[in-house]
């Protein structure tokens, strides 16, 4: 401590500081009492002590030590000292070369041991007072307050049982205080007494220090000559002067928790949102399904429930509560609670710890500081409701703040709410507390601190010590009281289109968790927007956790999203990486959709009861003002448009479930590859799943969007296990118009376990009367792509399909079938118009005028017209091509003539095919063999180079296009 560094020698510590702190030593004793005081040649021989062996006395003390020059505080503290009068004995000593017999009163320091519920000794016996009167002795009288105590605790009484004020004033000044004057103090040049209020006073007009003492002398119930109250303000003159202020008051029991008032009772429950994080955490997930999880306290965000379990007085050994900064015992009344953490997998609170201290206080201090008790649990959660600002200011003094790592303190002491903050202006340390004065429970608690912790490096597979910023935040649950209209175990299906990607999604609800974010920082950093007025910067969100799976076309199975490497995956040796369990919805009282959800996957769910007219719904979409200049809201929808760019977005949701039903349009996002913002089209909509049973399943398709078309499906399966998943939409879900006609509806269908089908799938479709099937045509298109290197497009259906449709003009309906063979996952568009439908080009024949063999390698390819073809492509190969899947790269494309000239082919055997193309599909010609020269292989001049260049350009175009779509 600063004080100790200023002391020049041990003599000063012993002779000045310890005397001021008469209660700062520890003792034990056993002796017999002799209360009479030996008096020789004195008129009154009935002097005695007013206490006896076994008497207990209790003194409360307050000490303030500061630099006398600067006024800077060195330390301040409060304490209770318990003294047991252990012995009163006569002692003979040679004083001033003559024998002197005096009475010696000894005490033992005690403390309350809460484990044994008893007072126990704290150390050895020490002298508390000595007194003698002898008129024949050179000194005539003698008084000592024990081992260097400036404040006498015990005064002798005369035969009348009272204090002789006049005599004792002189005795104390000449035999006690003159002794200290020899060590550096000036003599008191002013002294006196007041027998009316049983007090002495001593002054030094030069140095300004003083001592004021009052005793129990003439009180009806107490008149034993013990100290009632003592006050001193003294300057230690050696080295840098130190000012010491001490107040000691006698009390009549050792209970220092009797004035504490708590605002809670056993059984009271409080629920908190809780965030706990280190700045180098790699994983912010809130669920247990994590190979690296170590338990609830390692979660970034969760919910905890506090149930008050008991109140209990406990003795803590506290550092910094005495002059020497040693560990001293002091009693606090603790509030204990059972701690429950929210468990996502069990969807319930689970007891984590029992009888954990959440707060403790006594009459001196509003909470415990720096105790040696090793414990785990939440931070300070409760304060006494009768604590005052002055209690905190005395407790959180500058020195203690520095010891705790802070240099600043601020209070906002309101009638209903108390707030105080401690922080370090040059470092990360911060504590901010907000308390309800009615209950005393913490409403919010924020802590940031620098800590050392052992971290596991996933990349080097080693443990290492890291310096981390520990962040902890609790808030009395308020903003996350969110009702979700779904239950654990429910399964939902969605379809998502974006760029060239098409994803079937299955979501299984696993539980409800919590998410925490600095929304003020998020909005400023990522959107450049201020926090909406009236919102806190730090926010918790109620989260729906789900397992998200994608349909794999090749495996024909649902495959979960996996945790990326470095974020908890891959799994242990020999095991697959863990499934990614992620947020599928997040909301609080301010936001129906958490803003960070904007940067991830489309929102799937809103809180129960949300409408499009609610501020918490509009708060999020108002943020899109930088993308759209026209935003409108309805009861269960929002629409957005950018009149300059000609882009739009629609969002619809179910009022009954909060489920997203449609999110469709354009998003303006930053392209990290090209380094600029751009518009991207996407579509996301809810699908319906129907389990299929081993019989004929008749299913009437439901839709929120298509109300004037009635569709019934008939599906037969041989065994349980198959599902029919569909969506019936009125809006084109892809950014590509159908090739012809006006939109009627879009049908997205998928059959899982299609091998269980026993017959073709039949659809009965009733068309609205506004479309007369006897005079207008229906057009059918499928969304597909020919290969991995081509972009998807609408393709027509073959003429055979149209021929198989059965129309009923009387009911304005039709029946069609989809073959049961092969995986069934398709998006079908149905349009209508007055022109006949376009189908795949009809068969045609390829010929040439080449010789057999051809002598010069120059000849003309010719073919008959393919009805319905829009263009033709020419292919050449060294083997005969009989299927479209065998096609490589055409040597000519977009040909509208019925011939193509070939020149300069070297000797070899060639196979040619021509493909007739339209939006409905492709038709191959016959495979034509042409032999040039001997027919032996020679390289075609430029042929390989042509193939390489065409391939390079095609692949490059695809890569660039895909990158633009990211």
How many strands appear in the DSSP assignment? 51
User: Per DSSP, what share of the residues sits in E-state strands of 2 or more residues?
Assistant: 35-45%
Please bin the fraction of helical residues. Answer: under 10%
The helix/strand class is mainly beta
Number of distinct helices: 9
What is the approximate shape? elongated
Report mean pLDDT, rounded to a whole number.
84
Low-confidence regions: 1-33, 281-298, 566-571, 940-966
Major β-sheet profile: 15 strands, antiparallel
Rg computed from alpha carbons, rounded to a whole number of angstroms: 46 Å
The rounded distance between the terminal residues' Cα atoms is 62 Å
Domain count: the total is 5
Keywords: Membrane, Transmembrane, Transmembrane helix
Protein name: Fibronectin type-III domain-containing protein
Structure notes:
Residues 1-33, 281-298, 566-571 and 940-966 have low confidence and may be disordered. By secondary structure, the chain is mostly beta strands. The strands form seven sheets. It has a 15-stranded antiparallel sheet that branches. It folds into five domains: 2-251, no CATH class; 269-476, no CATH class; 491-513 and 532-551 and 560-677, no CATH class; 693-833, Chondroitinase Ac, Chain A, domain 3 (Sandwich), CATH 2.60.220; 846-940, Immunoglobulins (Immunoglobulin-like, Sandwich), CATH 2.60.40.10. The two termini are 62 Å apart. The chain contains nine helices and 51 strands.
């Amino acid at each position: 401590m600063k004080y100790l560094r200023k002391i020049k020698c041990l003599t000063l510590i012993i002779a000045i500081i310890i005397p001021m702190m008469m209660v700062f030593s520890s003792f034990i004793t056993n002796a017999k009492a002799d209360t009479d005081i030996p008096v020789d040649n004195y008129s009154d021989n009935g002097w005695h002590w007013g206490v006896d062996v076994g008497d207990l006395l209790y003194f409360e003390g307050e000490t303030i030590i500061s630099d006398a020059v600067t006024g800077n505080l060195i330390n301040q503290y409060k304490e209770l000292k318990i003294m047991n009068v252990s012995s009163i004995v006569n002692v003979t000593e040679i004083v001033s070369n003559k024998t002197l017999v005096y009475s010696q009163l000894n005490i033992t320091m005690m403390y309350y041991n809460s484990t044994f519920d008893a007072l126990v000794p704290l150390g050895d016996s020490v002298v508390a007072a000595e007194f003698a009167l002898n008129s024949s002795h050179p000194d005539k009288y003698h008084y000592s307050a024990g081992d260097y105590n400036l404040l006498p605790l015990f005064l002798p009484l005369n035969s009348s049982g009272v204090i002789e004020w006049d005599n004792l004033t002189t005795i104390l000044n000449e035999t006690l205080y003159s002794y200290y004057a020899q060590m550096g103090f000036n003599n008191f040049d002013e002294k006196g007494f007041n027998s009316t209020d049983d007090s002495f006073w001593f002054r030094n007009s030069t140095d300004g220090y003083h001592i004021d003492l009052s005793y129990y002398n003439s009180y009806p119930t107490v008149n034993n000559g013990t100290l009632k109250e003592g006050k001193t303000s003294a300057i230690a003159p050696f080295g840098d002067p130190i000012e010491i202020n001490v107040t000691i008051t006698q009390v009549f029991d050792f209970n220092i928790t009797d004035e504490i008032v708590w605002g809670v009772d056993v059984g009271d429950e409080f629920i908190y949102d809780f965030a706990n994080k280190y700045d180098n955490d790699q994983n912010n997930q809130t669920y247990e399904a994590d190979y690296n999880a170590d338990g609830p306290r390692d979660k970034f965000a969760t919910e905890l429930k506090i149930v008050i379990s008991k109140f209990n007085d406990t003795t803590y050994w506290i550092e910094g509560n005495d002059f020497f900064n040693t560990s001293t015992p002091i009693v606090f009344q603790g509030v204990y609670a059972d701690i429950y953490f929210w468990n996502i997998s069990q969807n319930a609170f689970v007891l984590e710890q029992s009888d954990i201290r959440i707060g403790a206080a006594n009459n001196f201090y509003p909470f415990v500081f720096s105790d040696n008790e090793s414990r785990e649990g939440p931070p300070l959660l409760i304060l006494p409701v009768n604590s005052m600002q002055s209690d905190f200011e005395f407790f959180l003094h500058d020195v203690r703040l520095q010891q705790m790592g802070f240099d600043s303190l601020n209070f906002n002491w309101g009638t209903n709410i108390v707030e105080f903050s401690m922080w370090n202006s040059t470092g990360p340390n911060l504590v901010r507390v907000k308390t309800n004065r009615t209950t005393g429970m913490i409403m919010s608690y924020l802590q940031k601190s620098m800590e050392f912790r052992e971290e596991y490096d996933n990349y080097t597979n080693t443990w290492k010590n890291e310096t981390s910023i520990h962040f902890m935040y609790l808030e009395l649950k308020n903003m996350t009281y969110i009702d979700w209209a779904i239950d654990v175990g429910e399964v939902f299906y969605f379809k998502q289109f974006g760029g060239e990607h098409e994803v079937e999604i299955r979501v299984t609800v696993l539980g409800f968790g919590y998410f925490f974010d600095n929304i003020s920082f998020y909005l400023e950093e990522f959107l450049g927007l201020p926090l909406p007025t009236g919102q806190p910067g730090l926010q918790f969100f109620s989260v729906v956790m789900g397992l998200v799976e994608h349909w794999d076309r090749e495996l024909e199975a649902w495959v979960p999203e996996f945790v990326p490497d470095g974020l908890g995956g891959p799994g242990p040796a020999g095991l697959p990486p863990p499934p990614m369990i992620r947020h599928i919805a997040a909301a609080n009282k301010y936001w129906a959709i958490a803003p960070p959800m904007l940067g991830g996957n489309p929102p799937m769910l809103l809180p129960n009861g949300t409408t499009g007219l609610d501020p918490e719904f509009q708060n999020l979409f108002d943020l899109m003002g930088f993308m759209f200049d026209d935003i409108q809201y309805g009861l269960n929808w929002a629409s957005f448009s950018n009149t300059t760019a000609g882009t739009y977005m629609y969002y619809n949701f179910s009022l009954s479930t909060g489920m997203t039903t449609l999110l469709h349009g354009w998003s303006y996002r930053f392209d990290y590859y090209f380094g600029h913002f751009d518009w991207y089209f996407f579509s996301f909509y809810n699908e319906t799943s129907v389990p299929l049973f081993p019989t004929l399943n008749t299913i009437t398709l439901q839709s929120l969007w298509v109300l004037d078309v009635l569709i019934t499906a008939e599906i037969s399966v041989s065994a349980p296990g198959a599902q029919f998943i569909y969506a019936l939409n009125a809006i084109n879900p892809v950014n590509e118009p159908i090739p012809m006609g006006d939109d009627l509806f879009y049908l997205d269908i998928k059959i899982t376990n299609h091998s269980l089908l026993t017959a073709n799938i039949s659809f009965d479709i009733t068309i609205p009367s506004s479309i007369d099937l006897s005079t207008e045509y229906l057009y059918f298109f499928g969304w597909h792509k020919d290969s991995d290197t081509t972009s998807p497009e609408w393709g027509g259906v073959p003429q055979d399909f149209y021929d198989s449709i059965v129309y009923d003009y009387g009911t304005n309906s039709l029946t069609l079938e989809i073959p049961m063979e092969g995986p069934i996952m398709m998006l079908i568009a149905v349009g209508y118009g007055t022109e006949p439908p376009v189908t795949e080009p009809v068969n045609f024949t390829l010929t040439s005028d080449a010789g057999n063999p051809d002598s010069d390698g120059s000849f003309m390819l010719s073919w008959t017209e393919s009805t319905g073809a829009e263009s033709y492509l020419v292919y050449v190969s060294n083997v005969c091509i009989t299927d479209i899947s065998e096609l490589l790269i055409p040597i000519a494309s977009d040909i509208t003539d019925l011939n193509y000239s070939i020149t300069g082919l070297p000797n070899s055997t060639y196979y040619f095919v021509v493909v007739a193309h339209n939006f409905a599909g492709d038709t191959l010609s016959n495979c034509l063999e042409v032999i040039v020269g001997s027919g032996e292989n020679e390289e075609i001049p430029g042929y390989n180079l042509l193939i390489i260049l065409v391939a390079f350009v095609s692949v490059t175009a695809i890569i660039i296009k895909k990158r633009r779509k990211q």
